[in-house]
Structures are given as structure tokens and as C-alpha cells.
# Entry
Amino acid sequence: MAITTVTDLNHPALDIYARLTEPQLLNRLQPEKGVFIAESPKVIRTALTAGLEPISLLCESRHISGDAADIIAACPTLPIYTGSRELLCELTGYTLTRGVLCAMHRPILKSPEQICEKARRVCVIHQVSDTTNIGAIFRSAAALGIEAVLLSPGTCDPLNRRAVRVSMGSIFLVPWAWLSPQNLNDQLHALGFRTAALALTDNSISLTHPALQGEPRLALILGTEGDGLPRQLISEADYTIRIPMAHGVDSLNVAAASAVAFWELCK
# Structure
């Protein structure tokens, strides 16, 4: 067990945690060399169980024999860096409740065809940019039975540090893949799905409509936080659906709406 104590943010070992931006971690030019940061023992354990490869661990010294002990035992050759709670707070910009960070290699992604081959219910995230919403959608997808997540170009990277943290590691539990910039409905139809766009239109049917439950393979399309889905995408979908509302409320946050829709359509 190789442990190094660091006392300031200029330590070279902290570059990966403190000085590389999310685009630099992603490494679009060489995806096979991409990195992401997992926070908290629970998230790190979930990633390791899913087969992801760790690079190094950064934690408060007290967690070496505490919350991170089982992680260290499972990865005996992993470089470990320790620092004070104040140092980690300065590093992340907030106080870590569990004080453990792990740099990991990005997984090799599969194609939409591979992850959707046997799926009956999938979620399509279209240009959702908020990291918190991405994490929450993945958490609901994993909990409520969505079998795969597809992302359109312009959507936030699911392995963004905050998205991973908000998902509580659920991003490692549901297979996901990127769609191409081409027509989204055409791609989903080619994968064998009927499409359902979640949107407020005069032609929207209720989420509880029997026709939806009767579809053997259904792709639920969620839109960006402000503008929702583009009109053309909505018009080309097989269904446009809305969640029944009370008290004159017209819509829910996209993450909350996803949980309601997943619950109903994955029964």
C-alpha cells in the first residue's frame, strides 16, 4: 500500500483532481485515455463492482482505515494520496461528506445496437445539459427498470463528476450509449422501438394511456430543461405524452418527470 501525504494543491499527483477540466478528463481526441472522478465510497464501490479500473485514490487520512478501507483492500497496488479535510474542501469547492475521491479510467462504450438488443424500455436524453438532472435521471432509470439510456449529441457527459455523484453510482448500473446527429426517431425505429416524446402539446395523450403499456418496445424521449424537445422531433414521434397534473401545474422538472414516466411505463 503506497500512501503519499500531500499538503497543498500544487502537488503533481493532484493534477488529475484539481487542474484538469472536464473536457480534458474526457479526452475527446483519445477516448481510450479518458478519465473521470468518482466521489464517495459508495459510488467508488459501485464503479469497481461494475468493472471500472481505478487510477488513484485521494482521501482524508482517517478514511484509510475507515470508510475507504475495503476499497484499499480490494485494490492493494492503487496509489493513495491523503490530505486534510480543508485541503479536500479547497480542491472540490465544497465540504465532502465522505472525504474520498477516486480517479478512474473511462469505460469503453458499446454501441446503441449492442445495449438495446434485448431492451424493452429505454430512455433517450436529448440535449439535457444540467449535470444534476443527468445524474438524477440515471438514478431513476436504474431504480425503476429502464434497461438502457441513449444520449443525443449536446447532452451532458454522464461521467461528469457532479453527474456521477448525484446518480449515486447508478451511471455504472445502466448501459448507455451515444446516438449520432442524424434523425433521432429514425435511429430509434431502426433499433426496433416505437417512440414516445414527453411534451405538452394539444395532441398529447396521458402517460397512463393503455396503448403505451401495450407497446412491446418503447423509447421515452426527454428534452432539455428550458425549451423541451424540438417541434420536429415531437411531430415525428409515434406518441406525444404528458403526465396528468393537478392545481394548474403544467410540468415537472425533467428529472422528476423521468421518474414518474419510468415508474408508469416500466410496470
